[in-house]
Amino acid sequence: MRSEKVNAGYLSPESDESLSVDSIIGAEEAWRPKAFDPPSDAVAKAVAANVKKSKSNNVLLTAVANNGMADYTLNWIESLKRCKLDDKYLVFAIDQALVDTMTKNGYGDHVIMIPEDWFHQKLDDKFAKWQDKSYTPITHSKTLVVERLLYMDITVWFSDVDIVFMSPEIYNYLIFKLSSRKTTEALYSQETEQHIINSGFYVMRPTDLNKKVLHDSIVIQDHRPDVTQQGAINMVLDEINLSYHSSPIALLDLALFPQGRLYFERNIPVKYGFQPMIVHANYRIGEEKKKSLQDAKLWYID
């Protein structure tokens, strides 16, 4: 069990297997929604320009990256283009260099710097490999951005940039899935079937439950920087009702939204005769991500 959690990004190798939410953050007073200052005009304008409006949701497809992930970000955008989904999305940049790179490539309307006061610690602008000291602070920043967006009444459609979009119908499918049960407040991709969620691709409505999930995961990472973002969110979700009858959490089909091992090593779902909606190049470190995407003909940029 421990090795499965480590390999899935649930815990770093040094983490204590017995960790729980209470053991890290202790007993807290009754949770209340936070009161953030309004976002800057620049952030508010960028978000408003890139929101997709559905019947009951203001949906923002968003990613968080630094310039060390610039090539993956550009490949992510190219996959959106090929799926005709590139009209509205917003990348929150950790550093000015990524803003400059995206602007130079014609994507200036789809990038905004993360305000300094959103961060909890200084971040690196280089490519962060899993298990590097700079890795967990960067994943932590993703949660901080999503939390702020929820408080702006945005339904957040979050994607890591080492993901390739494969289907033009993915947005419609996700809205259908999100709306198919009145109780559903969040959709998560999976790392292992019905066991560990993957925090690299999800949809969250701006509900109090989701705000509390992110709050608790942020507190965990603030107290224990050796716990990854994915590990922190899984710890919190472990304590939530996950009954398929009434849970506010719905899981996305692992074959339609496969992680790297399933797609690149086991050829799922292609060997069963259908295409995935995304491919996530996780379970690969450094240049192995790019090589796997190239070998699968999913690396679209020069």
Would you give an account of this structure?
With 302 residues, the protein is an alpha/beta fold. Helix content is 36%, strand content 16%. It contains eleven helices and ten strands. Strands 1, 2, 3, 4, 5, 7, 8 and 9 form an eight-stranded mixed β-sheet that branches. Strands 6-10 form a two-stranded antiparallel ribbon. α6 packs antiparallel against α8 and α8 (208-223) packs across α9. The longest helix has 16 residues, at 135-150. The termini are far apart. The model is unreliable at 1-18 and 122-136 (pLDDT under 50). GO terms for molecular function: transferase activity. It comes from Phycomyces blakesleeanus. Belongs to the glycosyltransferase 77 family.
Lay out the secondary structure.
Blueprint: H1 2-7, H2 21-25, H3 41-50, E1 52-53, E2 58-65, H4 70-82, E3 90-93, H5 96-104, E4 111-113, H6 135-150, E5 155-159, E6 163-165, H7 170-179, E7 186-192, E8 196-204, H8 208-223, H9 229-237, E9 249-251, H10 260-266, E10 278-280, H11 287-295
Parallel strand pairs: 2-3, 2-5, 3-4, 7-9
Antiparallel strand pairs: 1-2, 5-8, 6-10, 7-8
Domain Nucleotide-diphospho-sugar transferase: 86-290
Organism: Phycomyces blakesleeanus
Protein name: Nucleotide-diphospho-sugar transferase-domain-containing protein
The overall strand count is 10
Q: Distance between the terminal alpha carbons, to the nearest Å?
A: 41 Å
Which ranges are low-confidence, i.e. pLDDT below 50, for 5 or more consecutive residues? 1-18, 122-136
Number of helices: 11
Main sheet specs: 8 strands, mixed
Mean pLDDT: 87
Gross morphology: globular
Order of helices and strands: HHHEEHEHEHEEHEEHHEHEH
Report the radius of gyration as a whole number of Å.
Answer: 18 Å
Please estimate the helix content: 25-40%
Instruction: Estimate the strand proportion.
Output: 15-25%
Summing up helix and strand content along with how strands pair, one would put the structural category as alpha/beta
GO molecular function: transferase activity
Keywords: Transferase
Family: Belongs to the glycosyltransferase 77 family.
Pfam families: Nucleotid_trans (PF03407)
